[in-house]
Amino acid sequence: MLTGDSLWFRYGDRLPWVVQNRSLAVVPGEVLGLMAPSGYGKTTLGKLLSGYLSPVKGKVTLNGKPVPKKGYSPVQLIFQNPELSVNPRWRIDQILQEGYLPEPSVLKALGIHPGWLTRYPHELSGGELQRVAIARILNPSTQYLIADEMTAMLDANTQALIWQGVLFFVQQQQVGLIVISHDEPLLQRLCDRILRLDDNSIGVTTSVQPASMV
């Protein structure tokens, strides 16, 4: 279980709190949505849960222990802009092999074509590169994924293809998934539960029945 317990965070001692007393938990195989308009600390909360930031108060634990800071992290954050997570000087096949070469079924589910493997990041479209950035972290060492508006800038068909691939991996490997978005219809289609961060300081959880992305 990935747990955030009474998390507080701000970017400076005299600046307002960005995250205030947030608590949540997600279990293996569950898809949890975090929904709120801009300015409610969704992205910061995702960075706290994935270890990119450390809380001022509170703690983040994975199965009761701190999330490892060294080596490959079992909690992976997927950025909205894939350029932030790949080396622009590497070919696509090098990027995919950096941590663990994805299974062919994962590449197929994400619609990654063999012809892309000898190209460089600038030779792919944004949607194609996002599929590569996702594929490189869909490996047996990943236990939890945090997707921060990862398809917000893509067309509807590409969004559906990417989410189908991610959900295939989540179901096959029983990986926990946190989806950060302000898009309620998207979260209703994807998630088992939605945590609405703008309702109050703790958040209100709503159970939903996910629909197919097809």
TrEMBL record:
Question: InterPro entries, per this entry?
Answer: AAA+_ATPase, ABC_transp_ATP-bind, ABC_transporter-like_ATP-bd, ABC_transporter-like_CS, P-loop_NTPase
Write out the GO biological process terms.
Answer: transmembrane transport
| Coiled-coil region | none
Provide the transmembrane region boundaries. none
Q: Which Pfam families match?
A: ABC_tran
Molecular functions (GO terms): ATP binding; ATP hydrolysis activity
Report the leader peptide range: none
**Every ABC transporter domain range:** 2-214
Which keywords describe this protein according to UniProt? Answer: ATP-binding, Nucleotide-binding, Transport
The text of the family note is: Belongs to the ABC transporter superfamily.
Q: What is this protein called?
A: ABC transporter ATP-binding protein
**Organism, as annotated:** Leptolyngbya foveolarum
